[in-house]
């Protein structure tokens, strides 16, 4: 894909973790691939702890280089990538410093992208300072999650940012929407006739969406302890995945058609009655344990975490969607840190056949199941029953696999790379609109409130397991179990 969309990409939080691990590596990959970024495009990093451009490039060489090109670094491309980078030292607390930024970017061609890879408390001050020097014109702004702490704080940020930037200029990033298999889910659902007729309550018994991580809170204990899994993963990534799984076919793939349909799902989520929370929501916190042979510490002893913390590192939920397509079908969502495996997948369990001439085994639910593995090893697997070879009619479960790396030679694009290119090229479809975000906060808020008021701590689980037993018990009440518990 050749582009001539020129741009100036201003990166706030230029020496932060996200810049180091995701944003700069993604821009480098786009640069290295050739043709994705206009030659005239510039990156202007903003940070406080570095003196000048030479110092910043030193930091980039030391910290970003190890995160790029896992299959060997192209040194020539790396050198020309560094040529794109400029640097401005700004104290974000001082609005007058933004004059320096204006001077650095004025005269540079193309659209200006301001990427706010900073804490949410800086979003509004940065936007106001940008406006004070006239930089809100001809520009787009990218806001990282978490956008706020609850509905009220997220509305306050959105209101204030909305006074400076129009909604079409605001790109709220949720990197799960940039993952290739999530895009593929849209292709699978809306590019084929096979699945859509079955994609409804008449044929689907239940759906599971899991994002499980082996990692703990790493160096983010302080942030995470004030956030928890519900805000960190459910309000955004899991509800976004749910809305893509459950949405109606959009009229087109333009940004508002897709986002309108996702919004309808979020608005149709059955509100959680605080009295039912014990039945439909499980929260857990990891204790010490062993992951892949290595002993790992308890959450409460991680740096930055309060020893008596009641923050959840695991959440499992039963969610219902109140519309004709999905009424009565349970959606089980689950996420957690320090679980037994790193896996993100969507499992669609179809109903059993209504009558079986082939014996009782064909009447068992779960004979047909679609498993969409988002990571690792992106695959879509369709389970069916087949006759076992030999005498008699004995059925066994078999599967059809769609393994993307067998069909497509080019590697998958990293989520951040796709999303950054979308911002530069003005494509909003994979970014969260304000009304979607509000609907998601509105739905999670009763759970947040109930847990905050409750004097029951989260349920403990040993690191390296699949979370508290209560998460399995919740599914058992619906005669089902998590995928890894099958057999
Ligand atoms: C981030 C969360 O949004 O997503 C992290 O803040 C989490 O806590 C991460 O680890 C997971 O993303 P991925 O792409 O590694 O599954």
From TrEMBL:
E.C. number: 1.1.1.49
Domain of life: Bacteria
Family note: Belongs to the glucose-6-phosphate dehydrogenase family.
Domain named Glucose-6-phosphate dehydrogenase C-terminal: residues: 186-482
Short name of any one Pfam family annotated for the protein: G6PD_N
Sorted UniProt keywords: Carbohydrate metabolism, Glucose metabolism, NADP, Oxidoreductase
Protein name: Glucose-6-phosphate 1-dehydrogenase
PROSITE patterns with a match to the protein in the record: G6P_DEHYDROGENASE
Amino-acid positions noted as binding NADP(+) in the UniProt annotation, renumbered to this chain: 48, 91-92, 145
Catalytic residues of the enzyme: 237 (proton acceptor)
Binding site for substrate: 175, 179, 213, 232, 337
UniProt organism field: Paraburkholderia elongata
SUPFAM superfamilies from the UniProt entry: Glyceraldehyde-3-phosphate dehydrogenase-like, C-terminal domain, NAD(P)-binding Rossmann-fold domains
Catalysis performed (reactions): D-glucose 6-phosphate + NADP(+) = 6-phospho-D-glucono-1,5-lactone + NADPH + H(+)
Any one GO MF annotation of this record: NADP binding
UniProt-listed GO biological process terms: glucose metabolic process; pentose-phosphate shunt, oxidative branch
InterPro entries in alphabetical order: G6P_DH, G6P_DH_AS, G6P_DH_C, G6P_DH_NAD-bd, NAD(P)-bd_dom_sf
Cellular component, GO annotation: cytosol
Signal peptide (residue range): none
Domain Glucose-6-phosphate dehydrogenase NAD-binding: residue ranges: 10-184
Physiological role: Catalyzes the oxidation of glucose 6-phosphate to 6-phosphogluconolactone.
Pathway in which this enzyme or protein is active: Carbohydrate degradation; pentose phosphate pathway; D-ribulose 5-phosphate from D-glucose 6-phosphate (oxidative stage): step 1/3
